[in-house]
Design goal:
Blueprint: H1 3-18, H2 20-37, H3 44-71, H4 80-101, H5 116-122, H6 135-145, H7 151-161, H8 166-185, H9 191-199, H10 201-225
Length: 227
């Protein structure tokens, strides 16, 4: 795996992990609703795992589609400015995400408006899987809820678009999804301890600066290549 891809995967994993407050705000109500309907405490982990597995699968599928669309420009001669432009946009989004994590700039949340129309068409299907009685229903509900409009998801999806292939796009979104996993699956297990970490202002600032640094380094590489 190329070093730059590894850096990008680590960056988006941090975005998912330390963007946990946003993720819990977006999906925490869904997880809580599922929890209230479940049988004994001993079986709850399998339901939450199934829900999150479905959600992350949808992220990976969206990333593969975005990566494939971005990669299609590689097949067209003379489209290097487009490829370079996508790379610049992807790194700008990393900078924006880093600033979001650091609590400096909240603009990425405005991107959620882009998916509202699609979600209005998908949301009614969720009624087919409620109330949740089997892990398979939780998985299907999670797969559907993976398309919920989310500024963080859409911002990382732009990075997937510029990743160069369907595989890299899927890997980018998978890394992000795995980053969100601890916050959501652990809500009823050790959420209090985890939230102490994710809400710590210095942890968020340092992680935000690290993510923004990855984006800034990518932009610097473009600038140096153009000299």
């Amino acid at each position: 795996m190329a070093p730059m891809l590894e850096q990008s995967l680590f960056a988006v994993f941090l975005v998912g992990l330390l963007g946990g407050t946003h993720c819990v705000g977006m999906c925490g109500g869904i997880v809580a609703a599922i929890s209230l309907q479940l049988p004994g405490q001993g079986t709850r982990f399998s339901y939450h795992f199934a829900y999150n597995a479905g959600r992350i699968l949808s992220y990976a599928i969206a990333g593969a589609i975005a990566g494939a669309v971005g990669a299609s420009t590689l097949l067209l001669k003379g489209f290097w400015p487009v490829q370079q432009g996508l790379y610049v946009v992807a790194n700008l989004m990393l900078v924006a995400l880093g600033l979001y994590l650091a609590g400096v700039w909240q603009a990425v949340t405005q991107i959620e408006r882009l998916g509202v129309r699609l979600w209005r068409r998908l949301q009614p299907f969720s009624k087919r899987f409620l109330p949740v009685r089997r892990p398979a229903q939780a998985f299907a509900l999670g797969a559907l809820w993976g398309w919920l409009p989310c500024g963080l998801v859409y911002s990382v999806l732009i990075s997937a678009l510029a990743s160069g292939s369907a595989y890299s796009g899927a890997a980018t979104m998978l890394a992000f999804g795995l980053g969100t996993l601890p916050n959501l699956i652990a809500m009823g297990l050790f959420a209090q301890q985890l939230q102490v970490l994710t809400k710590n202002i210095w942890v968020r600032r340092m992680a935000g600066l690290l993510v923004a640094g990855f984006g800034a380094w990518g932009l610097a590489r473009v600038a140096l290549a153009s000299l």
